[in-house]
Amino acid sequence: MASNWRSAETAQLYLNRHKIPVIWDIDTRALVRHLRNVGALRGIVATDGTPAEQLIFEAKQLPSMTGQELASRVTCGKGYGWEKGSVEVATSPWTEQMGESDAHSEARKHRVVAYDFGIKQNILRLLVDHQCEVQVVPAQTSAEDVLEMKPDGVFLSNGPGDPEPIGYAVENIRNLIGHVPVFGICLGHQLCGLALGGKTFKLKFGHHGSNHPVKNLLTEQVEITAQNHGFCVDPESLPSSKVEITHVNLNDLTNEGMRHKSLPLFSVQYHPEASPGPHDSHYLFTQFTDLMKEFAQPGSSRR
Amino acid sequence: MPKRKDIKKILIIGSGPIIIGQACEFDYSGAQACKALRAEGYKVVLVNSNPATIMTDPELANRTYIEPLTKEYLEEIIAKEKPDALLPTVGGQTALNLAVELSESGVLEKYKVEMIGASLRAIKVAEDRLWFKDACRKIGLEVPASALVNNAQDALRLCDQLGFPLVIRPSFTLGGTGGSIAYNKEEFGEAIAHALDMSPVHEALVEESVLGWKEYELEVMRDFRDNFVVICTIENFDPMGVHTGDSITVAPAQTLTDKEYQRMRDAAAAIIREVGVETGGSNVQFAVNPENGRMVVIEMNPRVSRSSALASKATGFPIAKIAARLAVGMTLDEIPNDITKKTPACFEPTIDYVVVKIPKWQFEKFPGADSTLGTQMKSVGEVMAIGRTFKEALQKGVRSLEPSTPWRAPTETPDSLLREKLATPRPDRIHWLLTAMERGLPAQEICDLTKIDPWFIHQIEELTAMNRRAASVTVETASKELLREVKRNGTSDEQLAQIWRTTPASVRLQRARYGVAPVFKRVDTCAAEFESFTPYLYSTYEDEDESNPGTRPKIMILGSGPNRIGQGIEFDYCCCHAAFALREDGFETIMVNCNPETVSTDYDTSDRLYFEPLTLEDVLAIVEREKPQGVIVQFGGQTPLNLALELKRNGVPIVGTAPESIDLAEDRRRFGRLLEELKIPQPRNATALVPEEAARVAGEIGLPVLVRPSYVLGGRAMVIAYDVNTVQEYVAQAALMGPARPVLIDQFLEEATEVDVDALADGTDVIIGGIMEHIEEAGVHSGDSSCVLPPVSLSPAVLDTIREYTKRLALALKVVGLMNVQYAIQRDTVFVLEVNPRASRTVPFVSKATGVPLAKVAARLMGGKKLSSMSLPVVLHNGVAEVAVHEFYCVKSPVFPFNKFRGVDTILGPEMRSTGEVMGISTSYGQAFAKAQLAAGQRLPRKGTVFLSVNDRDKRHLASLGKELSALGFRLLATRGTAAALEAAGIEAEAVFKVNEGRPNIVDLVKTGKIDLVINTPLGRESFYDEKSIRRAAIRYNIPCITTLAAAHAAARGIHALLEQGTEVAALQDLHRGRAAASTVPGAGD
Fold first, then answer.
1. Which of A33, A220, A221 sits opposite B544 (nearest CB)?
2. Which residues sit opposite B235 in a β-bridge?
């Protein structure tokens, strides 16, 4: 049943078309309570009547998320440019009025190279909204290749699973830090953490959903954020002389963001681009463009 | 940010009496604010005129004033208490308006009181429709096109610009009072005149119609650090055009995509910032055009509201409690979430269930009132239901509303009428939707007619399809899968019994056989992500039960369901007190209720809360799960009492007075025999099933007679008949209404004084809690009559008789707990009118008047304690114990919703019509009465002109009243007959025209402001319309109108007292000094 003026087809048809299985009519609270107590589990969705014991056996054979390098499986085959801004759903000139940047303004464009570890399109749209000219590159692209493109900034995307096995990315980020402004989200944040010498660990059942309170320690303000991650940067493991913790999750006090004290790099664990999700953290995109502008100044202390 | 240290004492203003649009949700929010601020170490001074509230319990605030909510009294209290700050945002529109008045008149500045929670500017921007619209436009948000007008000419000019239909909203009124929709010039003219009248500033907004658009509300909070969270989204099932208080509403919003929702969320944040609400909760309303998604802002309330109470109950996030803390400078991130304890209040609750709110209307109480729903709220209460799906919640909601009328399609209506029933929103539209579907009206047509979102219509269609499938089997042949499916969708055993033409018991049996039983899930703010520590539960048909019942001795309290006239906040007050007292006594307390406005459904009030319909099926399911030692049915009014016998039959341990005794007291015949045995007189009475029999017995009893149905509360459909025809018509009507229950016919005692008595009993001892003398004579429903405690005109002998009868009755009925008796005293003979072995409407009033919390004591008696073990402050009168009365008078006065129902007569009678009550306290009876009148909105004049028009019976007693009024310096105007009677007694009075005698007549005089007080006692049928127009005019022009001679006498004494005594205030803590101990009964620990 679709009831929306923008609706083109029902959700069911849409999901069928994309061959996405749907689970429904189960006691979701029972499932959540179970996961809350025992931690995240591996699972199998089956509809063919295979006996439960068999499915449990098969699920147990599945490799754990920990230690798997998944980014290379979801990244793009080759780089591409991205030009689309946010989808306009409003008839009122909403985004401009709310302090969002105008995608079509004649303002100076920032050349941004975005690493795709499993990037979400809304990140790209918001970068475009913030006057960025975006070139997406595969996960394995080397730092040299990226720097050769002479970007004003580099973006490190979100992505699935454990950051630790993605050694090549950590290595590349190390080679980018200080040479170009860097902004990381989610997996990108974790990779930054590793590149700066920190460690990551697996959360019991991760952070999921669109209502996680995150406190910005610089402004003492709280943002409601969308999150979806199972691993987390251990703030204690970061060199405190170089790195400043900027954001913390108020539910479990885990790390949600950091910045380099002297070099142009900041990253957040949550999804400021959330879609679905609240827009409280869109300011980070402006922060990124500001950082790029500042870095571009000849006398910048960030250089 | 830590809480402020520069503030020590905070004044909280309550919302006054329960009226339509402002009900007990403000007791809930005010009580929460008191508790939160005291927990933070602040001293709280509370003012509210409504004694039936938990917030006015002396334990809740440091200083409690039950005083009229007017500027004069507030200034007096401020002068006396010298608070540092005023929190105006938890007492509804009343508190907000009063705060503005206090601020603008310089009172706050004079006494250096800071307004916290909302600034004057923020209140004004939010409340002034034009300023608000400007604010919205400034931040790029759309609002419906509109303009403010203060006269009819400008308004008419606007019509041409904006086109019809038009919405008319008076400025500064609550619950949309005086608002309406006009479809043409004629309607518009009337509507604008009414709206300008209703607005205290004589101003109204005329607005482009967004009728039929989707309607949403966001409940939001903000703190000093500019942290902003949305607590809950609410979607209206009924689209724009129906006041949100009169709409079925659903939480969370069901038909918004994330894109649209986030846009709304951003807009709400921008609005609260632009308006300048620095801290606290606000409510922002939006309309969305279903055709193109255009979103416009409708309004915002910079305070907690009905919707925020609903949102609090729907999410488990206590908005008022948090708002109070934010007002003193705390921030959301430093306040813990009560439910999870480990996570902060700075988050947005996740709802993994659906909440449906359905309003409760009572148009049957107001013959002649227009039952079309529009921009002015008309419902008197509401229910909330929780289910895992919309269908389940909706069906639970419908059965919570009135357990006796299941959701059923009305039949036998031609299709054309059916379309009208769908197109025009009225209380029963939800039922007509079923008819439409059963008749196969296409869903699209139903959507077009109702403008209800297709998604909702589709859901209901699926329900009807499911029920059709169910109808193809029988209770015996229904499969387990089908049974589980229908139960999962919220269909009750009773509905299934109807479908299968069997009894609910056999459906229950079949469910038991298949093991199809509900489980209980928790409302935990976080969709089970974190552990919850507050057992706030609802039933559903799923796999895992999360109730985890305790093992301590436990007592379950059945609440009273939706507020109704005659069954309102007073009963919720009693239920809360039962929970408080029994918790103190070491019991685990379990509350069952479905009314989101109340304190009883605060998860703090009892140890465990089941937010469930009060039907046999739902209550039995909880009892089976919890296995309580006792269930209390006598505190929640008629709703739980109606279940008592059935519960007992199903093995539920009812504590307190036995259901059989309750039944005996309701059964006229058996009760009559008991009274004979006890040698207690009662009015002659009989019962009749058919008109002929009724005529005969009425003749035997002697006219006039009082005619009413059995099993009633609040005098539903009760009339005084002066002739046999009326009696016959009534009985014929009653027979049409439903199953054969006899009609009761009683001798009507003319010119009698009525008395209400509340008593406590434990089976051995009886203590009279309080004796209240009604100010209006017998014939006016006790709930609509003002009364005074202690009595002012009863002789000691009569009082002793009343006490003796009360004791006899309590012992004979083996009352354990509370009992209420209504007496009529006619020429020193005491008649028993009615006995109710349960908590009554007057319990909170008596408790506030005497300082002895009757409901708490009664709950302890039900828990097994004895009166002899409690040291209550009693005195013996001829061997009967009575709670000692104070040296002051307490007057309770009712408050009526007549201004919401144009065209309804305001005359009082045996049918209860008041929605709320106020209390006046003073050392003199007159002053107490005047205060109560003032608190009820009747400002008695101190000088000027009084108009009198009284019936022949009253003319005989008019002289003393006339003399009193003349002596007070009033000029007297009267209709010819009344003027003659006055002059015959030597009192000067000018005769004026009645409406049909010429002009200028009395109505003209009222309209031109020449009259300051109207005293009009009803003459009877022939002059009915004349009188009605006088009384309507008085209401409309806000001139006090008194309709009984007894009240007129009291008013004269009141005016006298006002002139003599001036403005006096007193805190309950001072009035009851030395009685505080009574609230925590000594010996409670043994």
1. A33
2. B216, B250
**Which H or E element spans position B298?**
strand B295-301
From the list B634, B647, B1026, the residue with the least C-alpha distance to B858 is B634
Between helix A283-296 and helix A121-129 the angle, nearest 10°, is: 60
Q: Active site includes A76?
A: no
Best mutation site among B254, B274, B346 for testing chain A: the one with the most A CBs within 10 Å? B346
Mean pLDDT of B632-652: 94
E strands, B8-78, where?
A: 9-13, 43-47, 63-65
Q: What are phi and psi of B746, to 5 degrees?
A: -120, 150
CB contact under 8 A, A276 and B262: yes
Chain center to CA of B22: 8
pLDDT band at B667 (very low <50, low <70, confident <90, very high): confident
Across the interface, whether the CB atoms of A27 and B544 are under 8 A apart is answered: yes
Q: How many CB pairs under 8 A join A and B?
A: 121
- Which of A100, A223, A273, A282 is catalytic? The answer is A273
Closest CA to B395 of B446, B447, B467: B467
Amino acid A252 reads D
Are the beta carbons of B46 and B15 closer than 8 angstroms?
Answer: no
HSE toward the beta carbon, residue B77, CA cutoff 13 A: 30
CB nearest A3 (choices: B225, B266, B455) = B455
Q: Do B257 and A36 touch (CB under 8 A)?
A: no
pLDDT at A88: 55
CA dist A198 and A200 (Å) reads 7
Question: Is A186 among the catalytic positions?
Answer: yes
Is B225 an interface residue toward A (CB < 8 Å)?
yes
Average pLDDT estimate for B854-861: 97
What is the model's pTM?
0.93
**Adjacent-strand bridge partners of B556:** B590, B631
Tell me the C-alpha to C-alpha distance, in Å, between residue A154 and each of A102, A143, A157, B293.
Answer: 21, 10, 10, 37
Interface test with A, best of B221, B231, B262 (most A CBs within 10 A): B262
Residue of A nearest to B270 (CA): A98
Q: Is B2 touching A (CB cutoff 8 A)?
A: no
> In chain A, which residue's Cα lies nearest the Cα of B526?
A211
B69 contacts B49 by C-beta, under 8 angstroms = yes
Closest CA to B1064 of B80, B82, B84: B80
**What does the pLDDT look like over A47-70, one tens digit per residue?**
888 999 999 999 999 998 889 999
Q: Which of B974, B770, B1002 is CA-nearest to residue B892?
A: B770
Q: What span, in angstroms and rounded, lies between the C-alpha atoms of B991 and B994?
A: 9
Instruction: Give residues 591 to 620 of B whose Cβ lies within 8 Å of A.
Output: none
- Domains assigned to chain A: 11-61 (no CATH), 71-296 (3.40.50.880)
In this predicted structure, the answer to whether residue B847 has a pLDDT above a threshold of 70 is yes
Higher-confidence residue of B288 and B957: namely B288
Tokens of B428: 């029963």
Nearest one of B838, B304, B317 to B560, comparing CA atoms = B838
Residue % of chain B over a pLDDT of 90: 71
Residue A50 to chain B, least CA–CA distance (Å): 21
Q: Does A98 contact B255 at a Cβ distance shorter than 8 Å? A: no
CB B579 within 8 A of CB B861: no
Give chain A positions within 8 Å (CB) of B229. Answer: 213, 224
The pair of structure tokens assigned to B596 is 């989101």
Strands (E), B937-1019: 945-949, 971-974, 990-991, 1013-1016
Question: Which ipTM was obtained for this model?
Answer: 0.94
CA-based nearest distance A232→chain B, Å: 18
What is the distance in angstroms between the Cα of B519 and the nearest Cα belonging to chain A? 11
Q: How many other CB atoms are there within 10 angstroms of residue B134's CB atom? A: 13
